[in-house]
Amino acid sequence: MTAEVTLEVVSPGAYASVQDAGRRGYRRYGVPVAGVLDARGMRLANALAGNEPGTPVIEALDGGLHLAARGGPVRVAVAGPAELEHAVAGERRVLDAWRSLTLADGDSLRVRRLLHGRLVVVAVEGLAVPPVLGSASTYPRAALGGLDGRALAPGARLPVPAATARRELTLPKPLRADTRPIRVVPGPQADHFAPETRAAFAEAGYQVTAEADRMGVRLQGPVLAHQGAPEIVSDAIVPGAIQVPGNGQPIVLLADAQTAGGYPKIGTVIGADLARVAGARPGETLRFAWVTAEQGEQLARAAEAQTQALLATLHPLLPGGVDEAALYGGNLVSGVVHALSTEYRPA
Q1: For the chain, which ranges sit under pLDDT 50?
Q2: What are the φ and ψ backbone dihedral angles of 342, each rounded to 5 degrees?
Q3: Is 13 helix (H, G, I), strand (E, B) or coil?
Q4: How many CB atoms lie within 10 A of CB 174?
Q5: What pLDDT, on a 0 to 100 scale, did the predictor assign at position 266?
Q6: 188: cis peptide before it, omega within 30°?
Q7: Which residues does the UniProt record annotate as the domain Carboxyltransferase (predicted)?
Q8: Given this model, what pLDDT does residue 175 score?
Q9: Measuring CA to CA, how many Å separate 24 from each of 30, 31, 228?
Q10: What is the CATH number of domain 182-302?
Q11: Residue ranges, CATH 2.40.100.10, the chain
């Protein structure tokens, strides 16, 4: 009998869960979209692993995720600003992220640390998780999706097919931290705040507090005073909405946010920037900038074009992890030294 191949979660780190593009069409029943916080990271990781773009992935917050292959080879791919540790028969080597890697039976991979931010996405070749309401995304508050509707726990095992025989892939130029202001479209209740308050929101920095998870990010900074009552009749919430409760401190809502709420929303973070908010670490300062809805649409198209360009740059790694494109793209002839002379002779 052939042993079942699985990927074991030795440790989930701070928090890890199975996510995909999200659960659409059920918000009117009170079911949040959920889904991965970094959609671009999911697409890049899946492409590196050889998966279709919407294949479920493992999303981890704050590092520490530790995975191991059991019963056979498993291909994984990591997208995010991470430093990795690959363990083979007791020997460990440090690797950069933005690449795929085949773990032989017994090998393990650990996210040692994040170089910036707090989000990392791990794709697993062939990962298939039964959908619930059309999605594999984990929403623990209602026990939907993922593995038994819960975040990943130590010892959890994901059944996967054995890795296919192919060369590993890499992204040649890892993404750098984006330090530009977070772009925000006004409203839908921008009129609950005076013009000078809206201006101050974009002029001041807001610090990410420790109250930051997949549901939302509480910020701390200058008070955003309401014009009139600090509550409204509950209306729809979408990921990116910036609620301002009575204390005047904004909350940016994310994938697991409730579907309706009764606090005025001063603005909505554009989709192209939402992953940056979700990935901000507690103590980090965020700055905001107002844009129109039309500008938000243009920025969304530009972000999609950039994602497509990044996907087009993926290329194979040579055995041993050598970047083939960098090797052949370099000038390997210049600076050659003649075999019969110690004199330097430019080529």
Answers
A1: 1, 325-347
A2: -90, 0
A3: coil
A4: 15
A5: 97
A6: yes
A7: 28-306
A8: 83
A9: 12, 9, 35
A10: 2.40.100.10
A11: 182-302
